[in-house]
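Input/output pair, single chain:
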Amino acid sequence: MDFSLSQRDSARGTPDAILAGVAGVAVASLGPLASMAPRGLPVWAVLIALVGLAGLARRGALGRLQRAMPGTALVLAFLALASLSILWSPSPRAGLTVVEIAYIGLGALAGGAWLSSLPGVEARRLTGLFLVGVFAGVLLFTVEAALDFPLHRWWNHVPAGVEIAETNVPKRTAVLLCLLVWPAAMALDRAGRRGLAVALPGVFAAACLLLTSRSAMLGIVTGGAAFALAVWSPRLVRGVLAAVLAVAFTFVLPLVLLFDRVLNLDGADWLFRSAQHRVEIWGMAANRALETPFFGQGIDASRALEPEGAVSRFGTLTDSLLPLHPHNAFLQVWLELGAFGAALALAAALLLLFGTGRMERRLQPFALALFASALAMASTAYGIWQAWWMGGMLAAGLMLRLAARTPAGGE
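Output:
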């Protein structure tokens, strides 16, 4: 009888051991993946969704998914609107974009519920692996930036004569690590390493100075300012961020038209060229958004809008009005899904933001710093539906949840 019990324990333990191993590889690989292969983040998102569902099923805890019902309802409503908009979207990959948003949402739901159910000892193990990966990623990125990115050149087949710092290759790494350093800093703080927790974002900020990624610089500086202020008053920072979200989603169209048509910032000599081009792109996108103010031009339409005679002072417009996206998340939602999409996105963002108020007060500055960093970068760079970018924000949010789950100090 003892032998049969041992066999049953072994049978139960083997799937758990496999699941623990896969989870460990997933969290440990985040730093290196962000550093060398950012476009692999969608695969990571699918993997973590499957691990989350399997982990909840093994614990008989699938009911935990119901706790996120308000957020799930908002995401489902957003997905329904996006799916419907495929009917009038000019983009041939509109359906694929909806699928990508869906599996990112599933990763957030299943991964978040699973991490919240982990025992403290398992959370500590995974947090340690995550920290090792992030340290490796930040170190690799710093050395690469100092040496003109030899590994990035080899991995991405960039010739020696090309100025790689001007391309998107290292910039994707920079913005992803800008997100991941905040949950890593929270994990260090949970381990009683407050000094290291504060130093890590500073080290990364110094590494960013070796780059031309102004979005990453903006993200880490904004996150640092939010962190410093939130140490004093997280409630104040939450209020400021909520106000920024409300203003951005509500008034983004008149604001960018003010910049473009009235202030003519796209021709301002005191702005650097890429900022001038951003203003022009925003103005073009706002004009098209006004044509379809309620339901938008359709999901992923940004990459397929015809110029219709529009002229750019920064280059010839060919078969597309925009360079894939408007470089502003608020404007992109308005352009593609109109006022209804903007209202749903605002509600979801506020739900996430106010969710930080349920964390321990000591941890809230890290969460608010992450939120502020993501908000700053989403306002100036990358299409909000780019799968690797959504995957990076998902990864940072889940690792924040993991770090918060980890027992403090020697508990």
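The chain is about 70% helix and 0% strand. Confidence is low (pLDDT under 50) at residues 1-11.
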